[in-house]
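Bit of a strange request maybe. I'm writing a small parser for structure token strings and I need a real example to test against, not something I typed by hand. Could someone generate the tokens for this chain?
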Amino acid sequence: MAYKYTLLFVFLASSLVWMSSAKPTRVGDANGGTDCAACTIIVSLVDQLSLVYQEGIDQAMQRLCSYLPGQYQASCKQFIIIAGPIIIDLLANGESPDAVCHALTFCKTEAPNPPCHLYPEPPGGLEASIKRSKLRAGKYGFRDIVNSDICDILPGLKQICEIIEGKLNNHEPAVDFDSDSFSTIDILRGTSWRGKDCNDLDANIHPGAKPIDWDRYEDSNCNGIYGMDPTTGIPYEKTLCEGTDPMGITILGDSAGAHFHIPAEWVTPSKMSAEMFVNVTFIAGNELDWPSMSSTTGFQNLTWPVVHGWTDSTYLRLRNRNLCNHRDYQNVAVNGGRASSMNSTIVKSLSRNQEKDYPLLTMYSLIGNDVCNGHPDTIAHMTTPEEMRASVLDTLKYLDTVLPKGSNLIMTGLADGRVLWKYLHNRYHPLGVLRGDVTYADLYQYLTCLQISPCTGWMSSNETLRNLTSERAMNLTKVLQDIAKTASYKNYKVYFLDYSIQDVMDKWVAEGGHPWELIEPVDGFHPNQISQALTTQYMWAKLMDQYPEVLGKTNPNNAKIKKLFGDQGGY
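Reply from user aminoacidic:
Good idea to test on real output. This should exercise your parser:
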């Protein structure tokens, strides 16, 4: 149901959508869970906007809706009609967003759990504030929408929900007329995720295909190289690409591999504006992921005001080595992906034909979700080494039936997420900057209380728990190392490459930066845009040092390709 909370974000500016769309395991929420958190953030934004602009609560709500693109404002205003009177009344009387959302019944206190709060407890205690707020709210005929389906509440969403639910559950493009798993539109698992199809009516034509008749008459692999040299009569594809060992690249990964990112401007009232939400449809249509700027498959530098950093990727570096690789990328990373879900569903959406397509460099990179979950007894729900081995071996066995001969697979180790608490816990979250009242430690505790934390083990004040989580991550990494040493497959070779986020941070610090600058500010969990680019540098250097053979040749014809075909059709 993650997509529904993504929609809730789009239409109501709910900045905590990641808790359902990016967290690895949706468990039984406590005390209202995601609904509670979403409500608390919305009310917080209204409260802080009224302070920033010195205006009434009702005006602040209208302002929040006005920031959304025009086609979404009606839905936002519909929510105001339903919940607005209570929000105005309670905030005007000094109640906190936590208490307001209890009065709206989005937040609950379910025994034996204590009430959850993001903000400091008010004088007299949170329970008294909640009781007082509920009494005041009782005079309003509030419509109970907590147990309703968001797709049925707001006008115009039902059809969108049906499309997304039906099309994106298999992680393939929603618009793909020839069913070859490649598309011509950017969102909904389209060209942001996989190379652009140059003929969506012919399944034999797609990025990564071996050229049909050397692309004498049309571009069958979408790399922009086709036609015949008028001097020799030989097809350009044959002259410029034959013998250069073209290859594609894919990542089988999680939200870090997909590059999950919620703009901090969306939850910082002093920076919010209509300009910051102009591209909200694109962002939501990509599941709040930015694969086109990720460390593995990134290919574009967006200059939007909600993007901070540059793009560097393994795909771009492979393309620069051999321009015949143009557009041959697939990002098969999914928010919440872990070894078991990768094996059961995610890997099946990889598109490659062993006979008709070029080899593929595959990055198997699940850096955290096998130890991250939102359960209070988090260790009991972590992947065990035995489960990890079984899932990974099944996935690799399947890949041997998909990857063309000559392919290579790089497995990376899990991250050490102790850096999150180490560098963020005493810093203010964007929602706490204005009043200095919410740190990342407060956010982590709040998410844990609601049992919706992306990672209870690492996003915790309990040092013992953080250490145990890292210990399990290291044990799972050892499994991957052992598989890389012992596994052998017919069509591809397996390699292991260690991944250290601390090494990446140390390099950044050496260049004058701060470690916290590499972590997503809204969720306090994912690597941000700068971190994505630095990770590319880090991983590429390791590949060049340890396994340069997997990166292919440098094409001596690159200059001629560029002269003849320019940007090769772009993206």
